[in-house]
What we know:
Blueprint: E1 2-20, E2 23-47, E3 50-57, E4 63-73, E5 83-85, E6 91-99, E7 104-113, E8 139-149, E9 154-164, E10 184-196, E11 199-210, E12 214-216, H1 219-228, E13 234-236, E14 239-249
Antiparallel strand pairs: 1-2, 2-3, 2-4, 3-6, 4-5, 6-7, 7-8, 8-9, 9-10, 10-11, 11-14, 12-13
Amino acid sequence: MAVAGRVVTSQQAVEGYIDTAYGKAEFDYTDKALGYSGEIGFDLFPMKNLVLSLTYEMATPLKFERNINDGKDMGGQFKDGEKKNLDLPQALRFGVSYNVTEAFRVEFNFDTYFEKYVNFNRLDDPVAGIDADDAYENTYAQGLAFEYKFNEMFLASIGFNLTQIGQKKSSTVDISIPGGHADYWSVGIGGQVTPIKDLKINMAVEYTGFQKTYSNSDFYDKQVYSLTGTMPSKKYNKEYINMAIGVEYKFM
């Protein structure tokens, strides 16, 4: 059994302008939030070489407060001090680990993120008719990993993951929330070094990208079309690279 606490700090800075008949309307703001939550996990050992894992992560409330920079609020469209939530959802994780041999291990995981049951009101858009409470289903992720232990000091691993996002395509109107409804593929490689007994150093790098590049025309693009006869669209091809390092030490 394991328990853990979590502290999350998040920030998004946005700036730009829109040309209007009355001149340039500029906006420049920063949204910040701080949240706390916890999680609990269990490992079961029903037979030799087999481990079953179940973890529950509590939701992390994140209430973002907006700070307008240099008075650039796009003619009053953005409000200084406004607070809206974009929480991290509850998550339920299930994993299976099996040692095929003493040196070779295979793992599978299935995760669920309960986005349908958290507060996303920062994404509400009354003009576009988007209510975040109706814009989300739950998100699911499935993963497969292989680990090989070369000796008592070194091991390496490789893993693959598919994430199926619950956000509906019609709910994305802001390219700063890029393709939230897209499915993602991830691949990661990692290694572990044990320089002395009971001390382990873990290192990993991961690449995540959309399954495919695509374009989407949202509510505001359709408004432009009604005025100009030309349908604009937003092209999504987001990529992420994550790197991590961790240290484990066993005291007893």
